[in-house]
## 1
Amino acid sequence: MPEWRRQQIERESRLEAGRRFSDGKVFAAKDTTALLEAVIRPGDRVCLEGDNQKQADHLATALAGADGSRLHDLHIVQSGLVLSAHLDLFTKGIASKLDFSYSGPQGAAIARALYAGRIQLGAIHTYIELFARYFVDLTPQIALIAAVSGDREGNLYTGPNTEDTPTIVEATHFKSGIVIAQVNKLADRVPRVDIPGDRIDFVVEAPTPFYVEPLFTRDPAQITDTQILMAMLAIKGIYAEYGIQRLNHGIGYGTAAIELLLPTFGESLGLKGKVATHWALNPHPTLIPAIESGWVKQIHCFGSEVGMDDYIRARPDVYFTGADGSLRSNRAFCQTAGLYACDLFIGSTLQIDLAANSSTVTPERIPGFGGAPNMGSDAHGRRHPSNAWLKAGREATEAHPGMVRGRKLVVQLLETFGDKMVPAFVEELASVEFARRMKLELVPVMIYGDDVTHIVTEEGIANLLLCRTAEEREQAIRGVAGFTSVGRARDRKMVESLRSRGVIRRPEDLDIDPLDANRHLLAARSIKDLVKWSGGLYRPPGKFRNW
Amino acid sequence: METLEIRRTAAGRAPGTKGHAITGVVASGNLEVLLERVLSDTQCEVTVKTSVEGFGDVWRAVIDDFVERHSPGGLRISINDGGARPDTVSLRLAQGVRLMEVDG
Amino acid sequence: MKAPLTKYRTGSWYEATGRERVAGLLDTGSFTEFIGPEKREVSPHLARFDLPEAFDDGIIIGRGTIKGREVLLAAQEGRFMGGTFGEVHGAKLTGLLRYARGHQDAPRVVMLLLDTGGVRLQEANAGELAVAEIIRAILDARIAGVAVIALVGGRAGCFGGGGIIAGCCSRIVISEQGRISVSGPEVIETNMGVEEFDSRDRPLVWRTTGGKTRRLLGGADAYAEDNIASFREAAINLLDRIPAFDLDTMAQEQARLARRLEKFGRCQDTPEIWQAMGIAEPDRIADLPDEDFDRIAHAQKEANHDAR
């Protein structure tokens, strides 16, 4: 007779091994490594909750401290690999295989570990792609998660940074896996139940609160005049042109400039209420002036942002909040919203090629992609119309006018040169060389060129929807590539003809005055200004203060 | 430091009546541009002193584009550059020529 | 082309360039520059270090009117070489101050818009001499009855010789972002260790050297919001409150400093001082809105001593 309960039996034996260190579900921080060694088995798929914001840092450090002869060859399946402890797992041989989405600050260390053969790379995913695989072929046996508080039954309060937790717990618990939570505080009662206790097997009060990176705080003081010029181009040439109401922004300074120009430049164009009303977006501090000026109707968030909690609590008409008053975020839902319910994604990249493929991967750094490949893609399953979506669809094709299919606007906003005069426009993405060196079957591409509808640089806007041939597309890209070698190799006559057709639009074509490309145009020019806009409710971390 | 002297013929006289204007600040990644209306109506001379050497061809391309788009005839333009990127240079030149025309 | 969107130019002092501050501080159109950028009086030293020059060597000097009153004025550009005192930079300021003292038709008020990290390292000797000459020139001018008013609120702060120069002025206006000190945060950390002073702990840096602290301790005489209009208003108000520059003022100042040391010398951080001064919620000072803070500062005896 076949055995149908192998996973449940296995789970029971692991729980029993773990209970030697716990009192009920609760165990002490000093026993964390021992408990992990007891419940985890070599070769397990482990999700160590870490995304680009909150980190199960106590559990990560404890796992990295495990005995490599007991725990080895783990397969790490997690969205963010950003702590040095995450890398230690691989250098110590505790883990060997990796599937992830984002690594940000550890990008260079991951590259080194890959070349040294310490990491077998599965794939660099977009967030919901990895989440989807949690339910199909990358289901974790072990999930190590983080919450603000928990009770002895395992009920968890995640606070504003709910992020990936419900998704990870869903995939792990309901497939006979084991879920271990670190909490900042063990409590008799949690302020709200974000994760029901019967899905949690063990709880530990961490010695220090979990780490959260203020990743979405852009100091307005760093925004340059060039970025302001580009933001004006985007607002006038795209937001106004298509009437973009539902959108997502990347986290660069260019998009921060757009957020800060809505109440000034956007107001002068009479766009309030007509554009940028509904968002899938983290609580960007730079959006505060637009919110306070009445531009924003609603925002759903992937996670929270350090210092924004009190502001969000005071603005429940705008944000999603729970019965306790604090933000409820959810990365899986928000990414889905970005895919299906937004008409525009605008974000930056490190490199873009002549087919508009973009990537942030270089042979030296593999920062991952996070949500950009998802947000920056046209959802072929979308079936609901909107004016912006239909207009973009009409521009994309002249054929079959009776059967127009809409298009999501996917905008790349980038300065032609990056730091140290490194050109952003290239003949070949550095990720192609990376794939060759690593013998990867798939070149890591953040956003595929055929999904990109517009490129905005300081030189102007290239509308790729209006290009009819590959050659036109290439010249449209060269036509906004500025003084990079790609830009200077343009066919001037063809670029001028594209400009006369409106495929390329320069600031002067949009009647944008270069004298307005000035920081005075920002609704807030410093973090202090943002604090003032928020009525003192936004409390920035110390590193952003100059008072 | 590298000094570049670039002379071009402009289509016409730069608009406005101001005698001189200055914009920008010399700082890392930034530059100052001094514009003086001292040449005949179609002449334009640009002197660049830059801390980043070896980008002469990029400077010439930036100036050519500027002369073509903004027609800065009659102007002697002097630049002290702290390593600004071409986009910043283009923007400051465009702003400078506008300053010769209006009170900014 | 239409007019630029100037209506949004509310003009943060911290953000503004030296030239923007001058234009906004003075009555519109009243400024006449001395030795302007077109004269190209640049540093004779920077080329030797392969460093770019500025046409005005980072300082703008000239005359104009403020609410109709004639003033002389100098503004440092904090973003060029950190607003540092080089040879030409210093000579321009010294010359302006000597003109104020020496000429019958010169205005009797000098505004110093300080934004400086101190002496320019590449011109060390010339810069040190310049600072000494400027201090002498300020004191001579004050003895001759000229009011010298420092305005501090720029990115570079007011450090090194600049901190001493500010201390020699008749009056000081400062904003929250402004900082006055002699040794900068990095210098203290380098010499005394990060345990003594963590230069990257920004709230610590500001509550030690920043505008609110200087104002409450009486090291500055007026507090401005971080915009050019507020600095202008504060400067105008001070014009009629210039203390006599005599032995009596100096003696009072000395006594006041001795008392300060006695009362607060054992405090480890500024909130302890505010506590000792009887200020409610001393930890909240850093987060107080400008108007609330200004009210508290006005009520403090320590902050409003005539002998600064």
## 2
Amino acid sequence: MGVGVRAQELRKVYSSPPPMAAGSAGFSFTAVRGPKGKQKTEIVALDGLSLDVRAGEVFGLLGPNGAGKTTTVGILTTRVKPTNGSAWIGEYDVWREQVAAKRLIGVVQQRPNLDFSLTAREILEFHAAYFGIGRVERTRVAAELLERFQLTERADQMVRGFSGGMMQRLSIARAMMHDPKVLFLDEPSAGLDPQTRLLLWDIIREYNRAGKTILLTTHNMEEADALCHRIAIVDHGKLIALGSPADLKASIPGGYLLRLRFTGPADGLAGRLRELAGVSEVNVSGPSVDLYADRGGPLAPAIVTAASAAGAELCDVHISEPSLENLFLHHTGRSLRD
Amino acid sequence: MNWKTFRAMLARDAHVARRNFIPMVLQTMLQPMLFTFVFGQVMTRSGMMASSYKMILLPGIMAVSMVMTGIMGVAMPLIGEFQFTREIEDRLLAPIKIEWLAVEKVVAGMVQSLASGAVVVPAAWLVLGNVELSFANAWMFAVIVMLVALLSAAGGLTLGCSVGQTQVGLLFSLVLAPMIMFGCAYYPWSSLASYPILQKLVLVNPLVYASEGLRGTLVPDVPHISVAVVIAALAAMDVALVLLGLKQFRGKAMS
């Protein structure tokens, strides 16, 4: 039986800086005067976020740095106390029934937090021991996971000298040691080379096929697209859009985004472009025009014709296919990488 | 309460302690031995100090090394694990109430503190030679030793969860150094009689009770604060430091 995750109206206001992993970009800062007249800074990390992650799905939280992804994961994994709102892992209230909730989850933090006083194998075995797994079983599972994550050769070395990628793999192996029903991965592939990233994706898919629920955060659209059944796009602590990658992409007007640049006078150009067949939205800013349409390349000749009719000349075209990046741009007016 | 998890956390700390055995023994032993040698041997043999000073010194050395070992054994790893490496997170996610992790750290610190007492006393006794220790009050002695061990570990928990990595230097110069110097470890409390204000002020220092309590039970002929007062004060400070330490720990563990 899979276990789902639910969050209702989560709000988190930090009065001191948020956890290191949460980054700082994108938070809204409000200066507030405390009771003693001392100035303190309040940071709204989450602003009424609700989520319903179904049992057995791979769910992605997609958003730029500082969107509130890490804080959400922190609350769902008992590490951050929400200012308002509630969260559940399965039937357990995360804040009131912490121990029961912790039994069901495995967590990979954004920053490696391995036990530097232990070797890789000991890290896995002690982790299993914390979860009450017997010696024989934990030795076996640790050996299996070390092999699966290609760490067997370095298994008996202290992790201090490990590369970032190795630490990340070991963190994920550790989170899987007690076979949790829900796996949280905060930016799992940040800093991994492409080969390791593919290995990780395989492992995530395989773990999900075994009926486990996976919640991952990422600002990589390709990753969200490749892995997730459903995606929630968050920005400034709020939910912006929710759905399957295909549905979300289909929700962008037209789907294709053509970013055009013109030279020369462009009076009436926007009007002409709007009239072209298949064009659903035209946004003009100076010489640049963002055009959403239901096709890409085939529209180019018609655009050139419309431009010359308006006395302008098309000098640059960039066509992007329906993507989550475009979706994010459409909803926020900003690129995910900004 | 989940004993399996608690035991596994203790096993982890024991494993790490075994791995760092030699540096740990040096850290525990070296400073008290140097003190014992210089003050107990060099100063008394040269006649600069009376030979009876050895009796005052030995319980004090035991108190200082127990208190410092417990504080350092809990505070230093906690400061590191919470700040830079965040390696404590894995144990915070273990299926047990997080307060038990703090309790586990205190138990581990008590064991270290007791071990340092058990090692330093015979070693100092050998270096000093000729000190007559009384074990007539064995029970009282045992109670005081346990209270001192708890005091040091709970103090370590409180300090370790209150001090940032960048303030470790200040911890030494502003907290630990005055604590040792005004801890009545190298002189009995009664010898502060000519500084009446200071004599009252040092009573907030837990090390005073540790030194005086050990003196009162090991060398009862040396003037000392009454053992009953010492036990009451240590017990009160233990309770206060455990509660404060747990509060600070909770604040560190959750944001």
